[in-house]
Amino acid sequence: MQSTRFDDVKIGDKLPALALPAINRTTLALYAGASGDHNPIHIDIDFARKARMPDVFAHGMLSAAYLGRLLTGWVPQSQVRNVSIRFTGITHLGNQPTCTGVVTEKYEESGEKRIKVALKCTNQYGEEKLLGEAVVALH
């Protein structure tokens, strides 16, 4: 991974987008096993329908993990100082998540050069599923 330098980053710069394959039942089962989150709304169609949903849907934290992957594909995890995320929509089966980030601020704090990045996860129709913000330290 090439090091991202504070002096080379400008407000408005975009992180390389992370486009992911469509969410399917296998993705949900694998995530449930890996995370230990076996909430039936995400893996049991009968349970989901009893909850008045048309089918199972992705764990919110799966999409949050994708946003984390976007960040750590850009800078090492050790440089991430804070991440805050708000869930804004349901990621249904067949949705293709795309995670993006835009630099919104540059500043110094605690002796470090830091930037803020606005984060977003949308589906193939441009519908927002998560919004967030991250702070990363750069050299």
TrEMBL record:
The organism's place on the tree of life at top rank: Bacteria
Record Pfam families: MaoC_dehydratas
One GO CC annotation: fatty acid synthase complex
GO BP term, pick one: fatty acid biosynthetic process
Domain (MaoC-like) ranges: 23-117
GO MF annotation terms: fatty acid synthase activity
Protein name: MaoC-like dehydratase
Organism: Cupriavidus metallidurans (strain ATCC 43123 / DSM 2839 / NBRC 102507 / CH34) (Ralstonia metallidurans)
